[in-house]
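Dear support,

I submitted the protein below through the web form. The confirmation email said the job was done, but the results page showed an empty box. After a refresh the structure appeared. I'm attaching both so you can tell me whether what I see now is the final result or a partial one.
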Amino acid sequence: MPKFPLAMAFLAALLFGAATPASKKLLQTLPTFQLAGLLYLGAALGVIPLIVKERKFSWPWKLDRKTALRLLGAISLGGVVGPVLLLFGLKLASSASVSLWLNLELIATVLFGYLVFRDKLSTHAWVATVGTLAAATLLSISEGYAGVQAGLLVALACFCWGLDNHFTALITGITPAQTTFWKGLVAGIINLVIGLQLDVYTATVSLTAAALFVGVFSYGISLLLYITSAQKLGATRSQIIFSSAPFFGVILAATFLREPISMAQIIATVVIIISLVFLFFEQHLHTHRHEATVHEHWHRHDDGHHDHLFPGAPRATYHSHRHEHKAMTHTHPHWPDPEHRHEHNED
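What the results page shows now:
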């Protein structure tokens, strides 16, 4: 694996992991809704360079009805509700514990894939799910009643993002960067307006800039780096690296916020790492049938589903253009990768 894309994937994880301890600090002076709004407005600003590079912009009201509804679901759950629940939980618990609880997002994504979107869940995935839930429970109990409340709030946020991940994976005709832009812009404005109705805005210019700065880098630039690394490393490798983000959050919380690392957090970290190993290194074969369709979505030509030619686009590079899928039935290795899950009918 090339060193530069590898470094970008780790930097993306570091920036995303830094969001939790940084938000904990900002919550000392900024109300929850106002901070959530500023963070996601920052995310919208952060992905603008990638959108400019794409040289093609999609307006939400020009999308087909299904895509528009999925984008609306992603904005509502992933952009409006999820961040607010996370920040309320962060007020009650240490940022180190909240960072570790964020691993529940991946578990929520897998569970929704199994329960709602007809994905198969193997023994490895069940072991990973039980292990991560056990670690989250241990963390909640170790922090007392407030920890249980915080754990439930963060878990609800992760379930929102789990559904958000599936909605986003099914969106066609708009790139991930533009999805993030609209999610950040719309959700940021909504939460900021709610925050202004609930509390007088007393933040200084420097504090406002700091909140936007965290949003730009932890949610915007982080995504930009992740997508760029995924184009070179592949979705699965880059996602494995990105899963280190919560652990970066724990390290930064201990280093900069001087939060003590408890024995419960150490045990939970070990259990979560083992669970992620079970989940990420699972691979299985299944046969599925694709119906003929014509659409536009984010894809690469070496994924086993896109065998058409497109001049100027290397097979291993993600890009978006309108193309035709012919009806076909085939068997190939499938990784538990929610961001690049495809719709299929099981034979």
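Response: this is the final, complete result; the empty box was a page-load delay. Confidence is low (pLDDT under 50) at residues 331-347.
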